[in-house]
Amino acid sequence: MNSTNRLSLSLLGLRLTVFLVMLMWALDKFIRPEHAAGVFERFYAMAGLGASAFTILGALELLLLLAFVIGVLRRFSYGAVMLLHAGSTLSSWHQYLHPHEGANLLFFTAWPMLAACVALYLLRDSDGFTVDGARHAHP
């Protein structure tokens, strides 16, 4: 297997696993809107959003994730996923200050995923396992 194929396979693995995590959060907005409301209130200071707001947010997130996982509109879809995850990661700053309280240690798993999102965004033109294939040939 040449280096181009190894890179494309690695980026596919990153994209699929980032998609899986973000898919669970998108589905949570439909399945447990009350949980999503609690997350938005606690981490984003956005209280009072109803179930219909989470249905709309979840639907928009699913559309974005579909574009991301199949690799279309890469600058937009990879960038938007990266920014969404960066916002989520940074909004949890309090948990990083108290890592050994409750389940706060789990919040540290957001950092490698953020690095994966950044890598996907920076290497988006080398991502060959997408609906439109790699944009540039890389030897």
Task: Write up what this structure looks like.
- This protein has helices spanning 3-31, 33-44, 51-70, 74-91, 93-97, 110-122.
- The protein is an all-alpha fold and 139 residues long.
- The chain has one domain (3-126).
- The radius of gyration is 17 Å and the shape is globular.
- The model has no long low-confidence stretch (mean pLDDT 93).
- The chain crosses the membrane at residues 12-31, 43-70, 105-123.
- This is DoxX family protein.
- Keywords: Membrane, Transmembrane, Transmembrane helix.
Shape: globular
| Rg over C-alpha atoms, rounded to the nearest angstrom | 17 Å
* Helicity, as a percent range: 55-70%
Q: Biggest β-sheet, characterized?
A: none
Please specify the SSE layout and strand pairing:
Blueprint: H1 3-31, H2 33-44, H3 51-70, H4 74-91, H5 93-97, H6 110-122
Helix pairs in contact: 1-2, 1-3, 1-6, 3-4, 4-6
